[in-house]
Design brief:
489 residues; alpha/beta; FAD/NAD(P)-binding domain; 2 domains; five-stranded parallel beta sheet; 11 helices; 25% helix; 21% strand
Length: 489
Amino acid sequence: MKYNSQDDLQARGEPAIHQAEFVRVGAQQSATSTFNAAVDAYDDSALSVSDYFARTAVENLNIRKFARGGSLTVTTRQIDTVIVGGGQAGLAMSYYLRQQGREHVVLDRAPNVANAWRNERWDSFMLVTPNFQVRMPGAEYQGNDPYGFMSLAEVVKYFDDYVKRFGLPVLCGVEVYSVEKSRKGYLVRTKEGNYDAENVVIATGLYQFPKIPKFGEAIPAGILQIHSMQYRNPSLLPAGAVLVVGTGQSGAQIAQELYQSGRKVYLSVGGAGRVPRRYRGRDINDWFTRLGLFDTKVEELKSPRDKFASHPQISGKNGGQSLNLHQFARDGVVLLGRVREARDGKLMLAPDLIETLAKVDQFEADALKRIDEYIARTGLKAPVESVPQLHDGYEQVQIPELDLKASGISTVIWATGYSFDFSLVKLPVLDRDGYPTQKRGVTAYEGLYFLGMPWLHKRKSGILFGVGDDAAYLAERIAARETLPSRCA
């Protein structure tokens, strides 16, 4: 099927996208070819333009090793833009570059897109953000349940459909080894070959590697230790009590599921705050949106390290529910202070449980006060509501150490967050925390960008509610450069 003009495309109802594409010549050379010639190479099958690009973006832009005389040679592909990371940030970036008709590729080391959602969540996982905040560009939620919550399967399907719908050129199973400055742009080295790119967008996010304390090595070998990303459901754990370390969103939700399944649960309490799922007739995220909290800019933070703070305890399970550590204590969960050390089969605990619980309670009180003040200031009609004040956690005896065997603990789940490592970028673009030095994703090196991190620009930069805004901004910056002759019109 040939397309001879823009009019032909419009007659078929196809989007006005690339009219040229890089193709391989032999094993090493690359040259440009028109869309018509490329389609002829596919036996003149009736491919639509969208189908063509969904197919050839993966096939023609892939860097292949080839054998000659028993040796392997790696080619280098010239390309406009490389996006490193196939999660929500990388896909959002790809969407906008696709709309521009800009040649690019998305590289991800995982076997599938959205790997963290697909393979690093527990079975009963639900989004904690309501559907109205699911706003990937071009696929903003339009359903009839804006205050509902997506299940894990629905989230995975959402991203799979997203890639197919927009024909995004994603290559999975390709690990990027390094990004280095080259004469004309950046050399991107991967296990499948190299790319010489005018632009590079690092969209791997902050949640890259599970963070487990070094002293965990001192815990007896007979006790199973896993990170929260490896937890799936209670039935897969060995019989016995479970210690969950950390009370951010993952730790609190996993602890709740475990004790509600009948497990004895010990819970080491961290510093994450708490908010009710709903208050005065609205979802808490609705109130926070109205208050402008999601649009708070990174410059407004009191300390640069505040961008690493945990999200408050909340859940999207069962239509959305509140989580309260005092309720956990009432239901039989043993609350503990922060775990400091492990030795001789025991965990040493900080005497900070009461202090930490007080901070968690105050976090909720401060949040509700802001909502009440907003309602009063704007004259908005909202029902009066008082949130239950529980104190059960304060009644628990603080213990200085926990004997794992005597407590019957067979599993330790580390809900202790993630670490990040951007050392693949071989340029001085990181601050003393290892966080990229940039302004809304734009670095001091022209053509090098970061995307998808919490507080990249605003509070919402790292979530589905806001990643598209930053991706659009970077796409505009890339378009403004207009320096690569091979860019398709």
